């Protein structure tokens, strides 16, 4: 029997058509236009598969329960020896069929997992975003434990359950993000209504549920910003060994409040630093990723977590690029130090690592493994200065340092300075600057004015609330003009915007250079919001603007046209 659950017939039909009309694609590919509705992004985003990329599924038989529209199924079919999917609704299963049409190592079933008689046992059972629904669809006195017990019975003796779910005590909910499943604010923090509902758990509650279901061996991992759109996955050991490194990995961008407008009252990066340094990182992680087995030291656990057993403690991903990358952080068994390694996820040849177009040529540089920097991140100090109004101006200091180190002539830097923006910098104990993650090089001199603009662009877009008030001017354009005066550079505002739009179109999955230009222009010219300007609630105008924008995302072409007509 089908389970009655849907994101809406219209949006699910659109997702089906996007998948059906696309040639065979990989889990790394983005097939939808951007921007788009949240439901489209959730089911089709290449960031989804990063949840499972740290683990080795080679040679394993996997059962995925509640497969949705195949976001994880796609990756699993690419990696495991055989995949069985169970999805409760026929319309969603139709998307999985289209999505996996190039694979021959899978089978599927439509209906309630509890009503299906599966004839075999599996090495791995995957439950991602499913457990929280148990109380709505399972009629037993203990529906959550019943679902976990049923999953355990589908495993071989050495098998492993992979479980992904939100943390009801996640830091983003304390900061004002709406609970993912219920309209009431702080519903999870207040322990949910006293009636059957969607329900998530704290770390200790989840651990107790797993033990009740017979899972005695568990490994916890922490996907950020959450398990839905995964930019990094961290282990428990890293949280204890290198809290400042955890902070750097988890706060590159602000957590999202899916489907609703939200405005945190304090900077998330500063709250995260306090929580992490207090040893509470695991308790306040936004989501959990758990590997659980009924047998200690199970063979499948060792196989899945092979990379973790070899010392890797965290993995960070850049999935919005034409050359997607994975950065791993590993503990050296000899001295306990942390080493950083970055590699391409795709098998790009040396020639393909040079990208040319829109009048630019750039090169992706393979960096050798190197020690992880554990100094204070420049961007964290900039946020702290802005929030507490210290009067310190670290950005101009950093720009002056870069100009002195990479200068080619009075108006240009060497092309290797392309990635020298403040988000890739740290501050040593002696207050000197250092750089990390210098992976892109411009194969021509870099105009200094463009470098200024690149650093200001990093303050905008999805990061505009993270870095609120870092500059004093009314807009980033005004800050750009002021910095040009400070460094005695002739402003090339429009030319620099065009260069940045060309670079982003060349490197990222956004191919529309003109639309990128108008988006950058709008972000540079919109009024900067200050932390002191904020009240505890959004205004009617802000809520209305959010709703109108979300509805317009149903029509991407119209959305982009309006953005061009109204650049500010």
Task: Give the topology, please.
Layout: H1 9-20, H2 38-44, E1 61-65, H3 71-79, E2 82-87, H4 90-99, E3 106-110, E4 122-128, H5 134-137, H6 143-153, E5 155-166, H7 171-174, H8 203-212, E6 217-225, E7 230-235, H9 236-241, H10 243-250, H11 268-277, E8 287-293, H12 299-304, H13 306-309, E9 312-318, E10 325-331, E11 338-344, E12 354-357, E13 360-364, E14 370-371, E15 376-377, H14 378-388, H15 394-406, E16 407-409, E17 412-413, E18 425-427, E19 433-435, E20 440-442, E21 446-447, H16 448-457, H17 476-486, H18 493-507, H19 513-525, H20 540-552, H21 556-565
Detailed description of the structure:
There is one protein chain. A hairpin with a 6-residue loop joins strand 10 and strand 11. The strands form 4 sheets. Strands 3-2-1-4-5-8-6-7-9-10-11-14 form a 12-stranded mixed β-sheet, with helices on both faces. The chain folds into 3 domains: 9-331, Vaccinia Virus protein VP39 (Rossmann fold), CATH 3.40.50; 357-364 and 375-533, no CATH class; 538-568. The chain is α+β, with helices and mostly antiparallel strands. 35% of the residues lie in helices and 19% in strands. The longest helix has 15 residues, at 493-507. The mean pLDDT is 89. The chain contains 21 helices and 21 strands. Helix 1 (9-20) runs parallel beside helix 4 (90-99).
């Amino acid at each position: 029997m089908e389970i009655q659950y849907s994101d809406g017939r219209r949006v699910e039909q659109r997702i089906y058509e996007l998948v059906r009309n696309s040639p065979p694609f990989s889990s790394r590919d983005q097939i939808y236009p951007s921007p788009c509705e949240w439901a489209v992004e959730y089911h089709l985003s290449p960031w989804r598969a990063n949840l499972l990329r740290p683990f080795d599924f080679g040679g394993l038989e996997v059962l995925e329960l509640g497969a949705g529209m195949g976001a994880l199924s796609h990756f699993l079919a690419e990696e495991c020896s055989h995949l069985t999917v169970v999805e409760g609704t026929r319309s969603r299963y139709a998307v999985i069929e289209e999505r996996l049409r190039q694979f021959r190592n899978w089978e599927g079933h439509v209906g309630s997992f509890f009503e299906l008689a599966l004839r075999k046992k599996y090495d791995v059972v995957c439950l991602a975003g499913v457990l929280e629904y148990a109380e709505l669809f399972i009629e037993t006195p203990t529906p959550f434990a019943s679902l976990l017990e049923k999953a355990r019975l589908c495993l071989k003796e050495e098998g492993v359950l992979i479980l992904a779910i939100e943390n009801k005590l996640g830091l983003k909910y304390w900061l004002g993000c709406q609970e993912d499943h219920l309209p009431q604010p702080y519903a999870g923090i207040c322990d949910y209504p006293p009636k059957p509902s969607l329900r998530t758990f704290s770390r200790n509650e989840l651990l107790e549920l797993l033990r009740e279901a017979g899972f005695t061996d568990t490994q916890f991992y922490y996907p950020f910003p959450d398990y839905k759109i995964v930019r990094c996955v961290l282990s428990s050991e890293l949280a204890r060994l290198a809290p400042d490194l955890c902070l750097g990995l988890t706060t590159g961008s602000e957590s999202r409040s899916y489907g609703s407008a939200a405005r945190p009252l304090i900077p998330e990066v500063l709250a995260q630093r306090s929580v992490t340094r207090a040893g509470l990182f695991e308790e306040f992680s936004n989501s959990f990723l758990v590997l659980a087995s009924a047998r200690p030291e199970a063979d499948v656990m060792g196989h899945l977590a092979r990379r973790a057993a070899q010392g890797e403690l965290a993995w960070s991903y850049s999935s919005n690029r034409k050359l997607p990358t994975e950065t791993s952080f590993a503990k050296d068994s000899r001295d306990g130090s942390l080493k950083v390694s970055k590699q391409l996820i795709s098998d790009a040849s040396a020639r393909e690592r040079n990208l040319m177009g829109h009048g630019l040529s750039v090169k992706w540089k393979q960096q050798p493994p190197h020690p992880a920097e554990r100094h204070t991140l420049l961007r964290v100090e900039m946020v702290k200065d802005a929030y507490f109004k210290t009067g310190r101006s670290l950005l101009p200091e950093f720009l002056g340092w870069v100009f002195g180190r990479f200068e080619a002539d009075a108006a240009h830097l060497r092309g290797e300075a392309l990635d020298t923006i403040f988000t890739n910098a740290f501050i040593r104990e002696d207050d000197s600057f250092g750089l990390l993650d210098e992976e892109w090089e411009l194969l021509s001199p870099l105009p200094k004015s463009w470098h200024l603009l690149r650093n200001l662009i990093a303050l905008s877009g999805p990061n505009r609330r993270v870095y609120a008030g870092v500059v004093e001017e009314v807009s980033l354009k005004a800050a750009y003009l002021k910095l040009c005066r400070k460094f005695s550079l002739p402003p090339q505002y429009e030319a620099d915007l065009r260069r940045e739009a060309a670079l982003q179109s060349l490197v990222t999955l956004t191919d529309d250079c003109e639309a990128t230009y108008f988006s950058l222009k709008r972000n540079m010219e919109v009024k900067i919001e200050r932390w002191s300007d904020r009240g505890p609630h959004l205004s009617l105008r802000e809520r209305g603007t959010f709703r109108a924008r979300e509805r317009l995302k149903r029509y991407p072409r119209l959305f982009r046209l309006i953005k061009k007509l109204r650049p500010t």
